[in-house]
C-alpha cells in the first residue's frame, strides 16, 4: 500500500483550513513519518511563525494519519479522533513560514481505541518540538469517509 | 492570527485572591468548526490551549510563547455552544518565564486541565 502517494484527506478527518499534515512518508506497525510545510495562509500563524497550537495539532494529526493507514489496511472507515493527553511537551522554537516539518511518530501502546505515542518534530534535522501524547478514537465516522478498495 | 474576538470572546473576567477566572463564549459560525470536523463541530483541543495563552497575555500585558507542557488532560469535548470558564491558579512569573495551572470547566463538568510554562517574549 503506497500511503505516501495518498491524499492526506483520505487518511484523516480534518479538513482545510485545519489541515496540519501534507503527507505521510512511511507507516508500519510501530512507526510513522509525516511532512508538513508552513504556508503563509495557515490559520494558526502568529506573525510569520506557526503557533504552538499549530505544532501540537500537526503532531496529533501525524498520529491520526498513522491511524488512518491502519484503518485502511483493515478496510475500516476513517473515524474522528481527539487528543486525550499531552505530556512533557517541549517546544524549542516555532517554525517559520516556508519551513518544512518532518515528524516521527513512535507508538508506545495501542490498546482498543487509545494510542500512546512519542512524537518528535524536526526542521532540517533540528528537533523543534517533542512530546508524548494519547489519542482517543471515537466511533463517529468522518462525514465524507469513503471506503477505499485495496 | 489571534483567536480572541474571532473564535471566542471574553464574557466576564474576575481576579480573585488566588485565581483568575475568565468566562468565554465561542463563535459557532467560525470556519474552524466546518473543518474540525465537517458535520461534527468540536472545539480543537489545541485551540483551547491557545485561548488560555491569549487570556494570560491579555491579563499580563505580555507576549508569551509556550515552552513546556507538563501535562494537558482533555476530559470532555467542548462544543461550539459551550460557555466554558478558564480558571488560572498557581501563576508564577519569574525571570525564567511564567508557569500556571489552568482548568477549563462549566457549572456541570470539567473539560480540560493543563500545567504549562511559557517564555515571556515581549
Task: Describe the protein.
Chain A has 150 residues and is mainly beta. Chain A has one domain (3-141): Hotdog Thioesterase (Thiol Ester Dehydrase, Chain A). In chain A, 15% of the residues lie in helices and 45% in strands. In chain A, the strands form 2 sheets. Chain A has a 6-stranded antiparallel β-sheet with strand order 1-2-6-7-8-5, covered by helices on one side. In chain A, strand 3 and strand 4 (49-50) form a beta hairpin. The longest helix of chain A is centred in the middle third of the chain and has 22 residues, at 52-73. Chain B is α+β, with helices and mostly antiparallel strands. Chain B has one domain (8-120): Thiol Ester Dehydrase, Chain A. Chain B has a 6-stranded antiparallel β-sheet with strand order 1-2-4-5-6-3, covered by helices on one side. The longest helix of chain B has 16 residues, at 45-60. Chain B is globular. The mean pLDDT of chain B is 96. The interface between A and B is medium-sized, with 35 and 30 residues. Strand 5 (79-91) of chain A pairs antiparallel with strand 3 (64-74) of chain B.
